[in-house]
Specification:
The chain has about 140 residues and is of the alpha+beta class. The protein has one domain: 3-Layer(aba) Sandwich (Cytidine Deaminase, domain 2). Helix content is about 25%, strand content about 20%. A five-stranded mixed sheet has the order 2-1-3-4-5. A hairpin with a 4-residue loop joins β1 and β2. The chain is globular, with a radius of gyration of 14 Å. The structure holds tetrahydrodeoxyuridine. Tetrahydrodeoxyuridine binds next to α2.
Length: about 140
């Protein structure tokens, strides 16, 4: 697997757009995500926080939800955009949700200042429990 996706620049621009709509009044930690589906379409998500805190949903999971509701079942790449000093990796829960639709998914984390990290999901979530464990 090549770690520089041919559509990386487009995905980064999309994740940056999503970042602009983040709803993060509690943490102030804005996140935008863009997932590329097998069809070639790109879906966006931002984090949506909640006054209960616990009902907060991360940008990546909202992007996955947007893809799934559009009928997608296979995801190729996920780009996470923040304006923080360190490239933001997907949280553990998001890694698990990404695995459901993208066992071969490439994760790219980007900062506004241009830091980029790239890793296959299989590296970020080794020895994962997934659909195959349930015979799917
Ligand atoms: N967050 C994301 O949206 N994605 C990540 O990968 C890490 C964390 C959000 C959740 C919460 O709104 C804020 O960032 C701080 O945790």
């Amino acid at each position: 697997m090549t770690l520089v996706h041919p559509r990386e620049a487009e995905l980064i621009a999309a994740a940056q757009r999503a970042h602009g709509n983040a709803y993060a009044p509690y943490s102030g930690f804005w996140v935008g995500a863009a997932v590329l589906a097998e069809s070639g379409a790109i879906y966006l998500g931002c984090n949506v926080e909640n006054a209960t805190y616990g009902a907060t949903v991360c940008a990546e999971r909202n992007a996955v939800g947007a893809a799934v509701v559009a009928g997608e079942r296979r995801l190729e790449a996920c780009v996470v955009f923040t304006k923080h000093s360190r490239a933001t990796p997907p949280c553990g829960v998001c890694r698990q949700v990404l695995l459901e639709f993208g066992p071969d998914l490439l994760v790219v984390s980007v900062t506004a200042s241009g830091l980029v990290t790239r890793a296959p999901l299989s590296e970020l979530l080794p020895s994962a429990f997934g659909p195959s464990d349930l015979g799917k």
